[in-house]
């Protein structure tokens, strides 16, 4: 079985500040990990993915995430928040193989204050 | 290259009715997955189709059913609608092989009254 826990349902930062969104996963096999962003009334857009290559993954819009197997974590960071980063962020895990489903966390709403 | 499209955008139905939602996969993708996203929650996997056959199902009752067509478009059918079925329904397409990256459509907002 696989699961995802996102710590903090709401994170608020000031424009220009560091963004840190936390994600911990549980998986019985080496996981594939993803971060998606959802803007109001829209679908999900892939920010970045970890697929067993480099543990530090760079994505779009200046976001990056580091896979830490010992901590079963895949936290999302951005050095300097922009107003346009305000959205809901979802961490997801897939075990690949014959089971391609994505299991999502409950999401973290990011608010960016001017 | 066209992305994933879904129709309709919004839909209002009455409890007990049936509904069909449609999805057109991204060009070249052979796998489609459906997810239900209740308000304030993360998406939950309903089922996945590969080459017109169901390839995995989440914890949803049989009144949730689907179809995938030879052109890789897909339908999600829900019978005997319940109030709790009100949600955003997301379709995602992908390739069977590769890095399991799924591309999502904009979703269909279903309201059951």
Low-confidence stretches of chain A: none
**End-to-end span of chain A in angstroms?**
41 Å
Number of helices of chain A: 0
- Largest pleated sheet of chain B: 7 strands, mixed
Number of helices of chain B: 0
Assembly of the depicted chains:
heterodimer
H/E series of chain A, N to C?
Answer: EEEEEEEEEEE
Arithmetic mean of pLDDT of chain A: 91
Strand content of chain B: over 45%
Q: What's the number of extended β-strand segments of chain B?
A: 11
Principal-axes geometry of chain A comes out as globular
Task: Please mark out the parts of chain B with pLDDT under 50 across 5 or more consecutive residues, or reply none.
Answer: none
What share of the residues of chain A lie within helices? under 10%
Task: Please report the distance between the alpha carbons of the first and last residues of chain B.
Answer: 38 Å
Which class do the helix and strand fractions of chain A yield? Answer: mainly beta
Roughly what fraction of the amino acids of chain A lie in strands? over 45%
Specify the biggest β-sheet of chain A: 6 strands, mixed
pLDDT averaged over residues of chain B: 92
